[in-house]
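Chapter review: from sequence to fold.
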Amino acid sequence: MDIWPDSYTIKMIDMKTYLLNGLFLLAVCLSSACTEKTLNKKSDGQNDFPTLSAMEIFDNLDASFEAEMPLVDSGGTQIRSAGMGSLPDFYGGGYYDAEGHAVVLVKGDPDAYLDEIRVRTKSNNVIVQRCDYAYNELVALNDSLGIPFEDEALCRELGWTGSGIDSEKNRVMVGLLPLTEKAKRRFKERVCSSGAIEFEEGGVSVLDAARLKQPQASPLHLRPSNR
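The token string follows.
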């Protein structure tokens, strides 16, 4: 009796071995995939933030900005100075929308800054939207208008009643009385033609302070509209 297996038997053994190895590799792959999925889920969970009120969101945002402001000496005490340019260049301002939600504006792709804004606000319900101008740019522009605004004769000639930042519109608002195309043209020729300026009739109001959020204040330049 031939004790050596024939070629057919050898092929069957090889096939069984191949199948067993294949099943083993499949099990390893499935186990690895499940483990990776579990780790990703756990990692994502660690980055989850709670749902906060709009006020809490802006408080956290302000605190994150303040923590990055430079320290200056004030009578032997180190305090943080909210100087020009202390806000991130991508930040465009913030406001409360009609439903009372916190909206944060960014100059650029909102998706690119969503994670950072969530970390800064420590919330998962902050709304991030694109804007045209950084808040630092609006502050600089509005501050620059304060110099010519001191010229009462110029203001009277142009009917210029005030200026200030509207965070929701992401613009510096300039009040003119009367508000005409001629008045707008004269203002652009005599004062500033920046695309970040938008005109409105009469004096600039308090800009609906209840729905606007401006972490870095910029003064409102106002004159009585009934001169």
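Two observations follow directly from the output. Confidence is low (pLDDT under 50) at residues 1-46, 80-85, 206-213. The radius of gyration is 31 Å.
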